[in-house]
Design a protein that fits this description.
By secondary structure, the protein is an alpha+beta fold. It folds into 2 domains: 253 residues, DD-peptidase/beta-lactamase superfamily (Beta-lactamase, 3-Layer(aba) Sandwich); 190 residues, no CATH class. The protein is built from 13 helices and 17 strands. The strands form 4 sheets. Strands 2-1-17-16-15-14 form a 6-stranded antiparallel beta sheet, with helices on both faces. Strands 12-5-4-3-13 form a 5-stranded mixed beta sheet, with helices on one face. Strands 7-6-11 form a 3-stranded antiparallel beta sheet, with no helix packed on it. Strand 16 and strand 17 form a beta hairpin. Helix 3 packs antiparallel against helix 6 and helix 4 crosses helix 5. The longest helix is centred in the last third of the chain and has 22 residues. The protein is globular and about 75 Å long. The chain starts with 10 loop residues before the first helix and ends in a 7-residue tail after the last helix. The N terminus and C terminus are likely disordered.
Length: 470
C-alpha cells in the first residue's frame, strides 16, 4: 500500500521545536493569542520520574512541538493503533469472521474461524440452529481451531494467570477467559468456573479451580483434556470473582457447546480436537460483527486477544513475531526504526518513538479514517471530565507497569486539528516490575503521567492556535 502522506515533513524532526504561529492583536481588536505553555516547563513542574517523549503536528503533518520525539520506547497498547490500520487495509472494514458447525460423515465439527469476539451466547444460537436442522445424532464431536496459529499465551513477560494474556487459536470463546467465582461456606470455599456471557453462563467442565495452602496467588497445570488452577486460600477473602485465561481453547469451546446443545435436546459425544478440517455440510453458522465495529471496541476496551487475532488474520504469518514484522514492513518508510514484537503492545520488546507514532497517525491513520474509531476523551475515565476543556480528543491509551502513553488527534474549539503522541516511561522501575500485577507505586505514577498528558494536550492546543484570552 502507498500512503499519500507517508513522506510528510521528515525535516520537522531535525528542525526541533517549531512555533505554532506569530502572536499579535489584529485590526479587528480581537483578544491576543495566549502564549502556549512550553511543554518542557510542564514536564519539569510535574516532577514525574522517568522520561517523556512527545510530538505534535498539524493536520498537514507539519511539526509544531517535539521533545525527545525520536526516543524509542515500549508503545504499550498504543500499538493497537498500528494493528487496527494494518487490519483495515488488509482485510477491509466490512470483513467478518465466520464460525461454522459442519457435518462430515458421522462427525459433527465446531469449526472456528478466528472470531475474536465469539461468546457463549453466540454458541447458544449455533446450538439452536443445530437442533433445528433435523440431523441424526453424530457418533463423534470434534473442534477445529486451525484458522489461526495456536499459541499458549500472548507473551511470557506477563504472569500466566492474567486474563488479558490468554492463548491464541482459531477457536476462541469469551476472549479465551473463564469466570472464577468463590464463596466461603463455613471454614471452606466453594469455587465455580463459568463460561459467562450476557444471557448464558454454563459451567465450564474442562477448567477446574481449588483452594490451596500456597504462597503463590495462583498455580496452573493441564493435561490433555483439562486445566487445573489452584488459588491461595489466604488470598480468597470471603466472596469474590475474577477472570482467568484459558489455555486449551478448543476443548473449552467444545465443552460449552456440548452443554448448550444438550439444553436443546441434542446429545453430543465428548469433544475431541482435530488438526485437519474435513469436507462436509455446514449445518449452522455465525458471523461476527464487521471489522470496523470489532476495531472500535478493541480500541475502546483495549482487548489484547482481539489485537493479536486481527493482526494474525491480516498477515497470514505463522507466529506473532513474523506477523508483527509483516506489519512493520507494511508501514514502509514510516516503519523504519520501529521494532515490533506483537500486535497488542503487551510485550515490552516493541519499540516505537512518539514521532514515529505521529507519522502513522498522519499517514495511514488519515487515509483509513481512524479518528472515528478512537475513544473520545480517553483520560476522563481516570481523571474525570473537566468542564473547562473546550478542545476534543480522540486517542488510544497505552499502559504497562510504569509506562503510560497516549496517541491520537486533538481538535481545537475553532476546528484546527493536530496529531500527537505522548510517551511516558520510568525505565528502571519498568524493568524491575515486568510480569507483576500492580507493583508498589504504579497507580500513583500512572495517575501523575495521565495528568501530565492532559496538561500537554492543553499546551498543544495553544500551539495549534486554539486559545485566546477571554
Amino acid at each position: 500500500m502507498t500512503f499519500s502522506r507517508r513522506g510528510f515533513l521528515a525535516s520537522g524532526l531535525a528542525a526541533g521545536l517549531i512555533s505554532g504561529g506569530a502572536m499579535g492583536q489584529g485590526l479587528d481588536q480581537r483578544p491576543p493569542l495566549r502564549p502556549a505553555p512550553d511543554p518542557r516547563d510542564l514536564i519539569a513542574r510535574s516532577g514525574l520520574p522517568g522520561q517523556v517523549g512527545y510530538a505534535l503536528t498539524d493536520a498537514r503533518g507539519e511539526a509544531l512541538s517535539l521533545g525527545r520525539a525520536a526516543l524509542p520506547v515500549a508503545p504499550a497498547s498504543t500499538m493497537k493503533v498500528l494493528t487496527a490500520l494494518f487490519a483495515l487495509d488488509r482485510l477491509g472494514p466490512s470483513h467478518r469472521f465466520r464460525t461454522r458447525v459442519i457435518r462430515s460423515g458421522d462427525m459433527l465439527i465446531l469449526a472456528g474461524g478466528g472470531d475474536p469476539v465469539l461468546t457463549t451466547d453466540d454458541l447458544a444460537m449455533l446450538a439452536k440452529q443445530v437442533a433445528g436442522s433435523g440431523m441424526d445424532r453424530p457418533t463423534r464431536f470434534a473442534v477445529w481451531g486451525g484458522a489461526l496459529p495456536q499459541l499458549p499465551q500472548i507473551t511470557d513477560q506477563q504472569a500466566d494467570y492474567l486474563s488479558y494474556n490468554p492463548s491464541v487459536s482459531g477457536m476462541m470463546l469469551n476472549f479465551n477467559r473463564v469466570h472464577l467465582g468463590w464463596r466461603r461456606v463455613g471454614v471452606d470455599y466453594q469455587l465455580q468456573m463459568e463460561a459467562r456471557a450476557a444471557r448464558h453462563s454454563p459451567r465450564a467442565y474442562t477448567v477446574t479451580a481449588a483452594p490451596a495452602a500456597q504462597s503463590d496467588l495462583f498455580s496452573y497445570r493441564h493435561d490433555d483434556d483439562r486445566e487445573y488452577w489452584t488459588v491461595s486460600r489466604a488470598a480468597l477473602g470471603r466472596n469474590g470473582s475474577r477472570w482467568l485465561p484459558v489455555r486449551l481453547p478448543e476443548l473449552y469451546a467444545g465443552d460449552v457447546f456440548q452443554t448448550l446443545c444438550r439444553a436443546q435436546g441434542v446429545v453430543l459425544p465428548t469433544p475431541e480436537v482435530i488438526d485437519q478440517l474435513p469436507d462436509g455440510q455446514v449445518v449452522a453458522s455465525h458471523d461476527s460483527p464487521t471489522l470496523d465495529v470489532i476495531i472500535r471496541d478493541m480500541l475502546k476496551y483495549s482487548t489484547n486477544l482481539t489485537a493479536e487475532t486481527i493482526g494474525l488474520h491480516a498477515s497470514g504469518a505463522p507466529d506473532l513475531a513474523a506477523s508483527a514484522e509483516a506489519m512493520r514492513a507494511w508501514l514502509g518508510n514510516i516503519g523504519r526504526g520501529m521494532r515490533l514484537a506483537d500486535h497488542s503492545g503487551l510485550s515490552s520488546d516493541s519499540l516505537v518513538s512518539a514521532f514515529g507514532m505521529v507519522r502513522v497517525l498522519n499517514g495511514p491513520g488519515r487515509d483509513l479514517n481512524l479518528q472515528p474509531l478512537l475513544k473520545s476523551d480517553p483520560l476522563a475515565a481516570d481523571l474525570g471530565r473537566d468542564a473547562t476543556i473546550r478542545h476534543r480528543v480522540a486517542a488510544k491509551t497505552g499502559t504497562l507497569n510504569f509506562v503510560s502513553n497516549l496517541a491520537g488527534y486533538v481538535t481545537t474549539p475553532d476546528g484546527q486539528q493536530g496529531s500527537f503522541a505522548i510517551f511516558c516511561t520510568d525505565p528502571p522501575r519498568r524493568d524491575a516490575s515486568k510480569g507483576q500485577e500492580l507493583p508498589a507505586g504504579v497507580s500513583t505514577w500512572t495517575h501523575a503521567a495521565k495528568s501530565l498528558q492532559r496538561d500537554l494536550i492543553g499546551a498543544f492546543v495553544g500551539r495549534l492556535g486554539g486559545h485566546r484570552v477571554m
